[in-house]
Amino acid sequence: MKFFARIVFVIPFFVPLLLGCGGNAKPLTDEPSVENAKGTPVIEIADDFFDFGSIQEGEVVAHTFKIANTGDGVLVIKDVIPGCGCTTSKLNKEVLKPGDEARFEIIFDSKGWRGSQYKSVTLRTNAPNRERSVTIKANVVVK
Question: Has this prediction a pTM greater than 0.85?
Answer without folding.
Answer: no
